[in-house]
Amino acid sequence: MRRLFWLGAGFGLGVAAARRARRRQQASTPDAPSPLGRALRAHVDDAIAEGRAEARRREATLRSLLAASKSKPEEPGK
């Protein structure tokens, strides 16, 4: 009987501690990101945009090179 009591008491305390920790975390978490978070997000967004622009430029270059090679007639015997 003692073991069952202590098992129940430990489980109850664990549940109570988890709920309390969750409430504290929700209360301390601001709705708006921090200035550091906003700056980091801006840098990541800029890097993604720059990467996409570079990919478009490279794709256009490759397309023009492939189009130019297809338009040249091949010499017979090669």
Helix content: over 70%
Q: Tell me the domain tally.
A: 1
Task: Supply the number of helical segments.
Answer: 2
Class from secondary-structure proportions: mainly alpha
> What are the secondary-structure elements, in order, as H or E?
HH
Q: Indicate the multimeric state.
A: single chain
Mean pLDDT: 86
Number of strands: 0
Global geometry:
elongated
Rg to the nearest angstrom? 31 Å
Which ranges are low-confidence, i.e. pLDDT below 50, for 5 or more consecutive residues? none
In short:
This protein is mainly alpha-helical and 78 residues long. It has two helices and no strands.
Describe this structure in words.
It is a single chain. This protein is an all-alpha fold and 78 residues long. It has one domain. It has two helices and no strands. The mean pLDDT is 86.
Outline the secondary-structure elements.
Blueprint: H1 2-28, H2 35-71
Keyword list:
single chain, 78 residues, mainly alpha
